[in-house]
Amino acid sequence: MISAGIDIGSRTVKLALAENGSVVMTRKVLNSHNPVETCMQILEGVQYDSLTATGYGRHLISNYLPCNVISEIKAFAAGARHFNRDCTAILDIGGQDTKAITLDDAGSVKKFEMNDKCAAGTGRFLEIMASALGLHLEDFADAAVSAERYQEVNSTCTVFAESEVISLVTRGVPRNEIALGIHRSMASRAISLLRRVQVQGDLFFAGGVAFNRCMRMLIENELGCRVFIPDDPQITGAAGCALLYCQSLPSHIPGRE
Amino acid sequence: MTQKAEPLFQDQFTGEPPAKRAVGYIQSQREKGKHVAGIYCGYAPLELIHAMDIVPAVLCAFANATIEEAETVLPANLCPLIKSSYGFIAKDTCPFYSFSEAVIGETTCDGKKKMFEMISHKKPMHVMDLPQLPDEKEALTNWEAMIRKLQVFLEKTFSMKAADADIEAAIKENNKKNDLVKQILEFAALPNPVIGWGEMHDVIFLSTPARGNELNPKLAELVKRLEKRVSDGYVYGAKNAPRVLVTGCPTAGDAAKVFKIIEEAGGVIVALDSCIGLKAFSEKVAENTGNPVRAIAERYLKIPCACMTPNNGRLTEMDRLIEKFKPDAVVDIVLQACHGYSVESHKVGTHVSGKNIPFLKIITDYSQGDSGQIRTRVEALLESVKK
């Protein structure tokens, strides 16, 4: 039996197929103004026995396809446990929100916190800041890591932060120092969410922002813990969905209904 | 699946927002020649107002529609309840305000009392100086003095008199009314609740303006109807749905989006721990004390409002409600920029989590823009309920 999990995020739609407790296939597509169409596109030619959806588009898709619907919190808890079976703390920074989750030893959600309703501290924030500095997203973290000093960026709001960055650039502050300042402000927001859920031990870092090595370093230094990043951190939620409804569920993934 | 039951209220307002029935009631009282006084919150001493046969009308404050108008004068980063309420008055669209011949306010939070200054020229207004440290020994004496001053204001404004015997009588009929309302709201405490938040609001919205002697027979009828639901095996919401206690700021109208999301996520709201909820009905005024005004002062000072410090009554009341309503989760609704409830939320959350009950704080306003984020949080909360 093949179970499929789909994570319909604001920027990317992710698909994972699981069979006998293992992830056997994954796929990612950039989301569009028409998430239903994007979902159909990613599911094209895929055979599965059950489908489970999460992400901001989870209820929308359930109007078009028969599927189970679960929250991202539950999906990430299950996915993180699959890739790192002892994990008790998760940070997910996606396109439009940030989540901090702690799990008990059995893997059930203990506490969770999410960012406020604006894009501050999310992947979208990094994208906009990179573009304000005229950098590709891929080069943004490298620029930050290369800086020896950082320029503080105080604005939390994405729109205000963009104006602040532009005025720093026109003042002649080196780009890499601004880049490091932006990463630091974002990391400190993630850390305050993590402290609110009382994170202890190692941290599982998921979501597209986990690809950013500067964020990883800053969080590791500040929390003094090890940060585990799976091969593809973006797929965590979709994998969790697929695994939760997989017939032979591995014993370390709780919460199956 | 939700079963169908006969509506609790069967009148021309069935299916309408609960404020409509209250408007209808107040209009009928106006036609009888009664005076109406606008009130703002749970600290307005209803027994005293009723003793003069004045009808207390809770002013509108729960709609997003009037906020745009309010923000031409008030700061955007202010509590939506205050903005909405000011907007209703500025646009002259609150029926309760237009019925009111005078307005009673209390110094609860800073935003409200500054807003009172901005509407005070429109109608006669009396602001009661509410003690902020209710446990201090002077608080009761001061609050009693404020209630007496209100009495003088009402007597002058409306050329009415209230003797102690009138106040005592109003206390007694109001106590009976509160008992009945409490009894009705506690039909949600049953293992299979037979009343939902919508009908709770129907009862609450009517029970503030209406006098006990007039309303009590009606309330007794509602109790009978609820008892019949129980004997018919009716269940509100899905059987064994996760039970949610909602606490925090007064929540109604457009903020009730949170209630709708909780129900859509499969939960059932069993208790409303706010001023549009159990708070107004949970305590009684002592009877036959020989000093009815002081007895009223004593009861109202016990309201566990986050404007007070310390507000230990909040946690005591939370314990009582948890014991009675057996919630599987607690949701704390904080209106944007309500510092009292927002700061206190940490204390409440720690207390509730210490009892191994999942807790969720939601900061929101009257717009619908954050519904998606609220939905994710609420669904995750209900998933974490072990049933």
How does this model look, in words?
The complex is a heterodimer of chains A (257) and B (387). The model of chain A has no long low-confidence stretch (mean pLDDT 92). Chain A folds into two domains: 1-84 and 234-257, 2-Layer Sandwich (Nucleotidyltransferase, domain 5), CATH 3.30.420; 87-229, ATPase, nucleotide binding domain (Nucleotidyltransferase, domain 5). Chain A has 257 residues and is α/β, with parallel strands linked by helices. In chain A, 39% of the residues lie in helices and 21% in strands. In chain A, the strands form two sheets. Chain A has a five-stranded mixed sheet. With 387 residues, chain B is α/β, with parallel strands linked by helices. Chain B has a domain at 18-160: Rossmann fold (3-Layer(aba) Sandwich). Chain B is built from 15 helices and eight strands. Chain B has helices at residues 18-31, 46-51, 67-70, 80-91, 95-99, 110-119, 137-158, 164-185, 197-207, 212-231, 257-264, 292-301, 313-325, 339-353, 371-383; strands at residues 36-39, 55-58, 102-106, 125-128, 243-248, 268-273, 329-335, 359-364. Chain B has a four-stranded parallel sheet, with helices on both faces. In chain B, helix 1 (18-31) runs parallel beside helix 9 and helix 8 runs antiparallel to helix 9 (197-207). Chain B starts with 17 loop residues before the first helix and ends with a helix. The mean pLDDT of chain B is 96. The chains are: A alpha/beta (257), B alpha/beta (387). The A-B interface holds A 56, 59, 70-74, 97, 108-109, 111-112, 114, 116-117, 255 and B 353, 363, 369-370, 372-373, 375-377, 379-380, 383-384, 386.
